[in-house]
Amino acid sequence: MHPMLINAVKAARKAGAIINRAAQDVSTIKVMNKTYNDFVSEVDHASEQAIIETLKEAYPNHSFLGEESGQELNNSEYLWIIDPLDGTTNFLHGFPQYAISIALLHNGQLNQAVVYDPTNNLLFTASKGRGAFLNDRRIRVSQRAKLQMSLIGTGFPFRDFQHLDTYMAMLKDFIPKTSGIRRPGAAALDLAFVAAGWTDGFWEINLSPWDIAAGALLIQEAGGIVGDFEGNESWIHSGNIVAGNPKIFAQMLQVLQPHLTENLKTAAAVKRF
Fold it and tell me: Could you tell me if 201 and 150 are in contact, meaning their C-beta atoms sit under 8 angstroms apart?
């Protein structure tokens, strides 16, 4: 395992221990609203602090982008992108679908990735050019060739509803063209499931870099494809992402194409970091 990935795993496991302890009694956790329907808890903050402290101990000059702490830029060629608890709403309801997501960019390119489900002790990891793994076992995207036979993941708009009508039109088109649609509520895990071949594809609108960076590298290293709704590489900035095995990815793009609004196309040109 790459040394930087080893440290990322160490950080994820420390955060996972914090989350698992807190999960024993979620009724006592202090919760705040960042915006409408967007919650943050003291557990999110404690998890992120543990991750950043662990990584800073190993790499004091690296830059960081965390969901809760924001940007800390040090003119480094390395940038850690961190979601300390993806699926906070699930966690606060005791719904066991949430994860820690840690990705490393080197000169703007995805280099290392960890997605850790502490409830089930599922550790997804990837290093650029070295493949993707689940608990040290190599994983690959599915071999399914037809969208009609595929299980597709997604995420409903819950915070920003400007694209709700567009999303509903996409969903209406996908439902009869697939074997089923799933919305578990944690994008990092949704993407990891594509990498593991448990689902065949995924799409969502307006996600943040920390939601998708690690999961995207998992998929790429597992033999899949990640893009925006036009099949390009702006997904990490626009937050509009589609992913899947190569054959399903292409078929998903065909379903999405008629629903591309100017707002979605414009978002692809905006850099977030």
Answer: yes
